Amino acid sequence: MTFYKASKNRSQGRGSWSVIFRHPVRIDVSTGKAGRRVRRGLGTSSDVDADRMVDQLNHILSTPGLWEPTARTTALARFDERVVDIFYDGLEATEVDFAKLREQVLPLPDESEGYRRVLLLGTTGAGKTTVVRQILGTDPDTERFPSTSTAKTTVADTELITTDDQAYRAVVTFVPRDEVIDYLTENVSAAARAARREESDEKIRRCLLDHVNQRFRFSYVLGRGVSKVDDLDLADVDDDDDEADDINPDEYGAVDLATTDKVVTSAVVAVKAVVARYVGEITNELIGTGDGMQVLPEVAEADARDDERVLEELIEESLDRDLRQSDEFHAIVDSLVDEIEKRFAALDVGDLKRTRQGWPSTWSWESGDREVFIKAVARFSSNYAPLFGRLLTPLVNGIRVKGPFRPSWSSDPVRLVLVDGEGLGHTPKSVAALSAHVATQLRAVDAVLLVDNAKQPMQAAPVAALKSIVVAGEASKLHTLFTHFDQVEGDNLPTFGEREEHVMASVENVLNAIGDELSPSAERTLRHRFDEARYFVGGIHEPLSGRKRAGRRSIEQMNALLVALEHPEGTPDSGPSRPVLDAFALPLAVSAAAQSFHSRWRGLLGLKHNSEAPKEHWTRVKALSRRLAEGWRDEYDNLKPVADLSYQLQAQVYLLLQRPKRWTNGEPNDDEKQVALDSISSKLTSELVDLTRRRLRDEVRAGWQEAYLQSGPGSTFKRAQIIEHDIYSRGAPIPSVSASPDQNSFLRDVVGVVTTVVNECGGVLE
Q1: In the CATH hierarchy, which fold is given to the domain comprising 117-164+404-566?
Q2: Would you say which domain of life the source belongs to (predicted)?
């Protein structure tokens, strides 16, 4: 049994004390053993109070009988509540429901109140958030809400409620502290690799602040080293909103950017120093020393070009492992966390609530002044470059806004809840299915608006979205809006109709392919939705004007879209007939889904060549394993094992549903068939997502931890083997004739879910 000691700590420039200790029970994913490093604020600047609380914490650390979660009540009777909160935080796995937190402050209206909820999906840069601006009627120059750019902008769930009320209200929820620290840890590791490659200080700084997947851009919070707005070359900022206006950064709170700049600069220097100390030792360990340098077997087997690549990978991974165990490494992370927390202290409006450990949980505010309101909310949603160093945008995981928003081109009130989320991404190749989170959102909303770029329509991401929507049984909710229609040009496309036909030719190709893959019924359903609910707009990045023909046409299309969203066509009745499905075909469907899943992931892991799913870099696979080991994400960027398996199961069951043995109460017509089958598919979606989360995340957490721990020679291959054999083959094994217990369990779970849902919907499996 290992015993640890706590010590107080106070960063330069901070008045309050913090405590640092290794937790005797919580697992450190870097080692796979108990001893996770914890640093928390004590909430006092008094030496006496700090010493008292540290002494109390050391008493707990020296008493194993107090290490169980059940001992919390006993500890509360003896020690300061702050000390108890610090020690017992994280001992029990708890998943915070952030949507529920927002709901408690600002409830979402539903259909009973005359509202319809609309989920927006679209490729990054297609104009999804610009469409939201048009519906809200916010000015792109003076209000700039929500924020837009050509790159990934919307990275948190954004819920926007249009209302007749005169007051504007908002509630924001924040990413948990431990998750922020984990992302910063990955950033410092990336900065260390950049230092190892002798990159410039500016490159190291970028790695230190901006996460590689663009989700956590801490430069928004801490700045990019520019102390004056006038010094910023906006032409060089191609990934942020560069629309000029007269925003005064000083109105966004008192922030000492000069001090922050010194902290970040010191962090860059510290990264370079610690890398210089470690890298020589690591290199000597890996390749030996002296005249007769001994090369690793892995390197010897490769050709000269691969020798260098493999050696570099080994050095970088060993460096990453050793640095994460060093005090200098964590001191760098601590310094950045301290600067981030200062931004919350600079909030001068609204009600900021914190967790018992002192980290912000929600911020809410109400105002009757639209200009003041939007300026305040911008702090949590903007990506405007001159405000860098004052924004909290990357720390937000959800924002809900309600107010009397209305399109500038319409006099009619709008009663919608617009749900905007992260873009689908850019890729010319096959992509993963919709995330598990989005897949469950499909059922909760009343309409889905797919926003696509008419200039480059129906690339891989929107096609993947279409397939996910149809197999989820939600195609009847689909509306499609093609943006950038003014940029569809050609000598052979002189008229609106011919340009529309040009775009729809791409749609036609996609529908044919979906019909071949998912059945003629899927093609027919989607074709009907495109015939009934497709719209084309251009120039929507600016206020629309009816003075020009193109503006009038876009206004007409947007108005037609709003009418369709607010007043949908009635859903046909399913009639009395229900499908009778072949129970013996279900195991075959499960087997096909598992085979497709494993084939894709063997390619991604580099275990088998797959041109549709090429091998991912070891750092990305390791980042995925960390998220699942910690339990705070089930995906990393486009690596989505839970979503992939869930989609494959949905797709195979969808195909099974299209081939019923017969129908009870007589053969229904096509519309009745589709309604009956879609109701089953819709209910199955959330059930299968829950099942795959349990089997690929919760029940195999130890496997993900073991995968993350791999380091040193051959670790990339070992990690891939663990993921494939100990996680995927256990959580989603391919059923076979000689079934193992895992195969029986997986098949039984899926069959049980499908059987239950089919029976609840009035169908039969026989």
Answers
A1: Rossmann fold (3.40.50)
A2: Bacteria
